[in-house]
Design a protein that fits this description.
With about 220 residues, this protein is of the alpha+beta class. The chain has a domain at about 70-210: 3-layer Sandwich (Rieske Iron-sulfur Protein), CATH 2.102.10. Helix content is about 15%, strand content about 25%. The chain is built from 2 helices and 11 strands; from the N terminus they run αβββαββββββββ. Strands 1, 2, 3, 4, 9, 10 and 11 form a 7-stranded antiparallel sheet that branches. Strands 5-6-7-8 form a 4-stranded antiparallel sheet, with no helix packed on it. Bound molecules: FE2/S2 (inorganic) cluster. FE2/S2 (inorganic) cluster (FES) binds next to loops.
């Protein structure tokens, strides 16, 4: 009996190819890196916007000239004569007083030296905020609420107020706008100086810049 021929080896199967992914038709999902990039960009935009808004807020004048809180211009012709009593500027809530020799040496100032010239006194009593008035016969300001009294230069004479009247900063300018004199603090104290208005064409009273009265 003839021997059987060995069976031929089965042909090798070609490896199967992985099926191709289906063609995508929707949006490509965002990678984590892209997501973080967009978050960073949005934060920068927000931060920049806030910074620009803050800058505009501070740069834009909040008070217009001629309204309380802003600058009031007073023509030289409206400045009261020295020791003639104060003049009220209701819109700016200040009294303009021109202190001459009579009031500069007022003994009621309790030893606090007063400079001669112009001051702009805030109309509001420093006790509890009433509007005080001018009493020409007594040459002083009287507050109707609790009786505080002040000299023409704003020094407390008597009453429950514990300090002198507050003042606004004043600049005396010439016709070209150059500043000739400006309110300062007397000897570094809280006392506002009166300013020389000689040759001034007008005054600029800044009702947004208040100098608190010296404790009396
Ligand atoms: S508010 Fe002026 S004395 Fe009191």
């Amino acid at each position: 009996m003839a021997a059987e021929a060995p069976a031929a080896p089965a042909p090798k199967k070609a490896p199967e190819k992985a099926p191709a992914p289906p063609a995508s038709t929707g949006p490509v999902p965002m990678t984590r890196r892209e997501f973080l990039y967009y978050i960073w960009g949005a934060s920068m935009l927000l931060f920049g916007g806030q910074a620009a808004t803050s800058l505009l807020w501070f740069a834009y004048p909040r008070f217009r000239a001629g309204t309380f809180g802003g600058v009031f211009e007073v023509d030289a012709s409206q400045i009261p004569a020295p020791d003639s009593g104060p003049k009220a500027f209701a819109g700016g809530r200040f009294w303009l007083i021109n202190i001459g020799d009579e009031n500069k040496s007022d003994p009621r100032t309790d030893g606090i030296q007063t400079t001669s010239g112009v001051k702009a006194l805030y109309m509001v009593c420093v006790h509890l905020g009433c509007l005080y008035g001018w009493e020409p016969a007594q040459n002083r300001f009287n507050c109707p609420c609790h009786g505080s009294m002040y000299t023409p230069s704003g020094h407390r004479i008597a009453g429950p107020a514990t300090r002198n009247l507050d003042c606004f900063e004043v600049e005396a300018v010439d016709a070209s706008g150059a500043v000739l004199a400006k309110t300062d603090k007397l000897n570094g104290s809280l006392e506002a100086t009166a300013i020389d208005v000689t040759n001034a064409a007008k005054l600029k009273v800044n009702t947004g810049s208040r100098i608190m009265g010296q404790p009396a």
